[in-house]
């Protein structure tokens, strides 16, 4: 008897992939009003939480490699949202800080994240519990990758 993989619609990885795709489609028009892409929004969220992080620190927080993050930050700098400055002590370290425009965007963009709660038609508690489960799963998968 030949064993077959689970059908696509029963694959957990496909459910997560589909969720990511749906999230992108949901966020795209909301972020377009602010002239942002989803990765730019994530950078802003990280900097609104703690301004002045280095590129390396942002990469760790956002799980992005420097070669992905640097062009993204350059575009954000051209858009007037952030500034990048090399450390005078260590030229390899580049600090990223919000500009006044980037800081002011926080007030205007405050409710962007609510689009998911509204679209999902679930309460904050349900979404929070689901987020925590996904975060836990993410950490377990990262640990599994690190140990292999």
From TrEMBL:
Gene3D superfamilies: Winged helix-like DNA-binding domain superfamily/Winged helix DNA-binding domain (1.10.10.10). InterPro entries: HTH_MarR-typ, MarR/SlyA-like, Transc_reg_Sar_Rot_HTH, WH-like_DNA-bd_sf, WH_DNA-bd_sf. Keywords: Cytoplasm, DNA-binding, Transcription, Transcription regulation. It is found in: Cytoplasm. It comes from the Bacteria. Its main location: cytoplasm. The keyword DNA-binding applies. Residues 9-143 form the HTH marR-type domain. Pfam families: Staph_reg_Sar_Rot. The keyword Transport does not apply. This is MarR family transcriptional regulator.
